[in-house]
Every structure is written in structure tokens, then in C-alpha cells.
Amino acid sequence: MRGPAEPKETVLRSATKEVVLGHGRRFCLIGERINPTGRKIFQEQLRAGDLSAIERDVHAQVAGGADVLDVNMGVPLTDEPDLLSRAIHLVQELTDAPICIDSSVVEALEAGLAAYRGRALVNSITAEDDRMAAILPLVKKYDAAIIALPNDHDEIPMEADKRLELTAKIVRVATEEYGIAAADIVIDPLAMPIGADTSVVRTTLETISRIRHDFGLNMTLGASNVSFGMPDRHTLGAAFLPMAMHAGLTSAIMDARTPQIVDAVKAADLLLDHDEWGMAWIAAHRKKQAATA
Fold this sequence. Notes:
This protein is an alpha/beta fold.
């Protein structure tokens, strides 16, 4: 059996700030709130050209502890490339946190990348050949990093073996055909809802552990997917993320307004020796004390 792969570091930047995803580094919180999916009033505001809610969401996510902000402007019946470009300009004025540019529309991704001053994370590709061929040239052109999901035309694989096989395909295509560094590929190991099948988290944890061992890549996932459809979702999220961090997860896309989950992540950073001398844990505690004083 071969030894573990060299751990990779993924560097993201705004115009003035750098965030590094890495095994052994503090966990990266990617704030998911700047997204109109399932938010009817926000969608109507965006259709009317009103971006004011973005400002509130940016401040809430950053205040909650988000290191990176996911920006999605997928609103039906709008010019998504223009909307995403304007949203990214606005977010850059409001915060120095790096941005994860999130769209399924290739033209919108390009508009977002062109508007961004820094080194973005792009969300996302799958192992489908047409998606890789459409998006990886943009990732290379704009020197970005990419989130990649190990599923293809056939299915979302339910076995870790198939997810590892598709991860290997993504890494091979991205590095050999497009010249993208392996360190700039962030794998989403696929978190499925336990409400449908309580064994799915075991598969996700196995996938995370094996990707860390075989490839040394950084990983992210939608943290709330696991608890979808279950009661007391925050408690489940606060239990799941530290388990995933121990397995090798280095970031998650989540709502940073949930202190229960953010605190669990920061505690896990300390307990996994990713928070030198406990400085971040102590600083967060003092900040809370000051806020309640």
C-alpha cells in the first residue's frame, strides 16, 4: 500500500487578503448566504435591480466568521452574467474576504471572473466531460481554483470507490489537459441527506479520508446537505463537521450565522492542533465576552 500523498495548499486571494486551504491549517468557512435560491423576496429585489440585501448578507456572514464568501446570482428571468458581475463588484467594496464565484452558467462564471480582483474559487465542475471542457479553460485563464464534484452523467455515486475513481479522472484531466495545479482542485466529497439513508455520512467520511490519503487535495462540501429534512439541524451540523475535519475536510460551504456550528468548527480546530496555542479560540472567546459586557 502506498504512503499518503503530499498535502496540498490552495491559495485564494482578494485584492488585499489571502486565505489558504490546507491540511493542518485552520478550517475555512465559506459563507453561503449570498444566494437567492429559495429566497423569494431576495429574488424579486434582484430582478428589480436592488442589490441592498447583499450588503446585509455580507456583513452577517463576515461577522459570523466566514473566511470566504460564496456569491450566487442564479435568478430566473434575469441577465445572470450582468447580475453576478455587479454583485461581485459590490461584495469587493464591502469586504476583503476572497470570493467563491458560484454559477452553473458558463457565461456568468466568465463575467464574474472578469469582475474579480484576486484569485477566486469557482463553484463548480463535475466529472462530466462537457462541464470540464467548458469551465476548466476559464479556471486556467483567470488563474482561479476550482471545486469539483465526483459525479458524472450517470449518477451521484453512492460508493466511495466510484467517487475516488471520478476524483482521479478530474485530477488527470485538469492537470494533464489544462495545466491546472493539483493544489487548485478542491474536491466536494458529496454530503448526502441522512434523512433518506443514515449510512450516507459513513460513505462521505470514508471518501474524505481516502481523498486526503491518495491525493492530498483540499475538500469542501455543503454542510447543510447532511441534515436536510431532519429536526434540530444545527446540532447535526455541529456534530458532523468536526468528524469530517478529523477525516480530512478542510473547508465547508455553510451559513456562518449559526454560532453553534461555527463554535464546533473552531473547537475542532483547537483539538486537532490546527489553532496554534489556541489563539483563535481565545480571541473568539474574548470577542464574545466583550460583546456581552
